[in-house]
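User: Reviewer 2 asked us to show a designed sequence for the structure in our supplementary figure. I'm pasting the structure tokens here. Could you produce the per-position amino acids so we can include them in the response letter?
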């Protein structure tokens, strides 16, 4: 058996199956929320998914250890791209200037690349310098991520800024930083960093979203409109849902924001059309995906593989929890997409790349590190 065929047959098949299901379901979900207006969105999503699956396969077959050589250049490029969003090349969507237009190519969100490459850089640093004193290690981690986090928050993209928090905590915990340092870090974050970010790093509409989270009825026709309509849509779906492409839905009648129903509020549309059972099925597949990632982490051949797998798993979990949570008023609205389901090319490609690395960790778990 050739090495290529051995790798191909030795994939983490529960991971592959869940990625395929979520990708296809995502195209169907985007279609069901936009078909009555245009075919543009689901056509693009299908193309991005096809490209993403190619990236997933290629990354899976390459030894993940090779990525460490490209991690720092990619991270520096992503930080430079974030800085460029503050120039005339930056584009504003949803109140945040977080998109970069590349002439002749299109737009992409550099913060997505920054998070993915940042996980690899942190995993590389923590695995190579595991013997550093905890305080020095935390200080250097802060140097690595502090600048990008501040730049992303300034855009302002509060959701992508918050993604860093659970990812970094997970990585430094696995890297052996004592719990007392983690507790002190959390106290500092909740007591100082978060209030400063909310008062000086967010725009008025973002602060209103947080206030509305605690009391959706405070402004039912303004900042509370979307979340109230989201819960009405999910609740009206009942057990079995109204059906695929059902007429007279919250989506079709425009009660859910037409500009974000296929991105931020796509789970609301799924709950309305597919009901409680459809939502449970979707969560079940995400559970399979996350458990496959965790099992891969436990079987990793080295600490670098363990850290990147744990980091990507945490990122996906937070996206799922935040996106679904904000549609049912369990979390404030931040605009984070639902992995492989929400419309968007940058996130699909980046996520496929990260999941390909996880699959590569599984395929090369018996390869002795150099």
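Assistant: Here is a per-position design you can include in the supplement:
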């Amino acid at each position: 058996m050739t090495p290529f065929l051995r790798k191909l047959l030795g994939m983490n098949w529960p991971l592959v199956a869940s990625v395929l299901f979520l990708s296809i379901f995502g195209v169907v979900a985007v279609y069901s929320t936009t078909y009555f207006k245009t075919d543009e969105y689901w056509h693009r999503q299908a193309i991005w998914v096809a490209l993403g699956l190619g990236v997933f396969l290629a990354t899976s077959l390459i030894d993940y250890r090779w990525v460490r050589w490209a991690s720092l250049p990619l991270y520096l490029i992503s930080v430079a791209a974030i800085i460029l969003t503050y120039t005339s090349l930056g584009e504003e969507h949803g109140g945040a200037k977080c998109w970069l237009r590349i002439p002749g190519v299109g737009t992409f969100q550099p913060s997505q690349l920054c998070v993915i490459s940042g996980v690899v850089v942190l995993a590389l640093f923590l695995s190579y310098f595991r013997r550093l004193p905890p305080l020095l290690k935390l200080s250097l981690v802060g140097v690595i991520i502090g600048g990008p986090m501040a730049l992303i928050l300034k855009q302002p993209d509060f959701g992508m800024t918050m993604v860093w928090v659970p990812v970094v905590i997970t990585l430094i915990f696995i890297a052996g930083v004592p719990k007392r340092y983690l507790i002190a870090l959390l106290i500092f974050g909740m007591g100082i960093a978060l209030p400063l970010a909310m008062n000086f790093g967010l725009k008025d509409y973002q602060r209103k979203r947080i206030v509305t989270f605690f009391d959706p009825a405070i402004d039912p026709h303004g900042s509370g409109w979307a979340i109230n309509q989201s819960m009405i849509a999910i609740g009206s779906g009942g057990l079995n849902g109204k059906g695929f492409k059902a007429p007279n839905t919250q989506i079709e009648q425009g009660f859910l924001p037409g500009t974000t129903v296929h991105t931020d509020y796509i789970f609301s549309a799924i709950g309305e059309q597919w009901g409680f059972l459809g939502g449970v099925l979707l969560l079940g597949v995400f559970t399979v995906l996350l458990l496959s990632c965790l099992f891969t982490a436990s079987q990793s051949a080295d600490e670098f593989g363990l850290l990147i797998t744990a980091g990507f798993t945490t990122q996906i979990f937070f996206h799922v929890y935040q996106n679904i949570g904000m549609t049912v008023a369990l979390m404030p609205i931040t605009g984070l997409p639902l992995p492989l389901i929400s419309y968007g090319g940058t996130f699909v490609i980046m996520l496929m790349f990260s999941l390909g690395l996880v699959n590569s960790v599984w395929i090369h778990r018996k390869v002795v590190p150099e």
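For the response letter, you might also mention the following. The chain has one domain: 3-363. The mean pLDDT is 86.
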